[in-house]
């Protein structure tokens, strides 16, 4: 058997869909033995998670399967080193290897995305957004017109100066996409600190087309005059014209920030180019590294040179010490994303989403915006007489893992919702193509058509309980097992 941990130059690096007989099996067996000698329950949970991931249809739009090289990189002693600060400017001694790791990861990020600057320390997407928000505020502090306030470096400001600054700016204003249109909590919504830092207003989507109405965004920006215009989403199934958004930001003097957490893989894989590539248009671009980009869990900020010094203050301003092992895994995943094989993968993610949407539509499902042109699909399950919560649970019973999500102007709110969000990044990594995604669409519609809301004690339909017709879960699981068996996850990895 070949050792496919060694990247093959012609086919690209070994992915979660590759055969991993040999070295990877040995590495994981040994690791689990060592873990089990200390805490067997953790070794067991780790094995069980692999079994669960192998045996379910993972359609969560924000999840993926990282490559063995990326996963293995996280389990090392690079985790043990403190390295607060930036490359060559650390608050701890002996950081030369972390300097190498961080430089290599940043270099790959800059080259891959064509960015002027990359900051790879954020521990997650939320952290990346917080770093970007503080960078924008700090940058404003350095604007010459503020010199008259006696304000200097944000790190050297006294409490009285902070007070002056807060007074000067009054409410910080951020304009981002509304949650029910697909925006993210970190774009100025109350449950997140951004909702406290900023006075937030959101732009929705056109009630008819359910797509972004750029004229409406422009009108809101002119009226609201935001400090930051935010683009990016978690549940919007369409591409965004970032050139147009930048024009709007420039018109009102706003900093333009894009959160590409969901679709970074499509940018990296050159599926989104020109006006749909945020990097040439935004002042700052934030992302996670673990969704369509297929790296370790983490975050990243790309910025223009102008914003770089402010971004560099992320640690210690809002971040703890960087995670050396995770930055190393980011470097490995970003190197993978620079291969032609990743571009093929990214195109397949988008093509498969089209097939999935087409398969659902042709079987009578209703989709927000009527389809997709990115990696995700949002099904409005109200046409099946279900809430998102009921649909999500019934699908899970049948071995299909999705998540409920609000649809625009959702009558069921953010908890029960009327939508189910699904995405193609994970199963595309496993090797699913058009035939499999069409079959997945068929299975989803079968489950939804076979589910009905359970009535409450008062005899009215409830929002959480449901009844899935007998035998549907079993037949769906059997059909999935056939496809999953043909496209094994980490094939050859026998624990
Ligand atoms: N930004 C967007 C658009 C997201 O969808 C998410 C995650 O769901 C995040 C940020 C937060 O990422 P993390 O969970 O890594 O903090």
From TrEMBL:
Site (Plays an important role in substrate specificity) residue list: 290
Annotated positions binding (6S)-5,6,7,8-tetrahydrofolate: 179, 183-185, 305
UniProt cross-references to CDD domains, sorted A to Z: SHMT (cd00378)
EC number: 2.1.2.1
Gene Ontology CC annotation, any one: cytosol
Cofactor(s), by name: pyridoxal 5'-phosphate
Skewed-composition ranges (Low complexity): 1-17
Chain spans, region Disordered: 1-20
Domain of life, source organism: Bacteria
Pathway(s) per entry: Amino-acid biosynthesis; glycine biosynthesis; glycine from L-serine: step 1/1; One-carbon metabolism; tetrahydrofolate interconversion
Catalytic activity, reaction form: (6R)-5,10-methylene-5,6,7,8-tetrahydrofolate + glycine + H2O = (6S)-5,6,7,8-tetrahydrofolate + L-serine
Serine hydroxymethyltransferase-like domain segment(s): 37-139, 172-444
Residue numbers of N6-(pyridoxal phosphate)lysine PTMs: 291
A GO BP annotation: tetrahydrofolate interconversion
The entry's keywords: Amino-acid biosynthesis, Cytoplasm, Methyltransferase, One-carbon metabolism, Pyridoxal phosphate, Transferase
Gene Ontology molecular functions: glycine hydroxymethyltransferase activity; methyltransferase activity; pyridoxal phosphate binding
Location within or outside the cell: Cytoplasm
Record family assignment: Belongs to the SHMT family.
Matches recorded under NCBIfam families: PRK00011.1, PRK13580.1
Function: Catalyzes the reversible interconversion of serine and glycine with tetrahydrofolate (THF) serving as the one-carbon carrier. This reaction serves as the major source of one-carbon groups required for the biosynthesis of purines, thymidylate, methionine, and other important biomolecules. Also exhibits THF-independent aldolase activity toward beta-hydroxyamino acids, producing glycine and aldehydes, via a retro-aldol mechanism.
Subunit field text: Homodimer.
Name listed for the protein in its UniProt record: Serine hydroxymethyltransferase
Organism whose genome encodes this protein: Microlunatus flavus
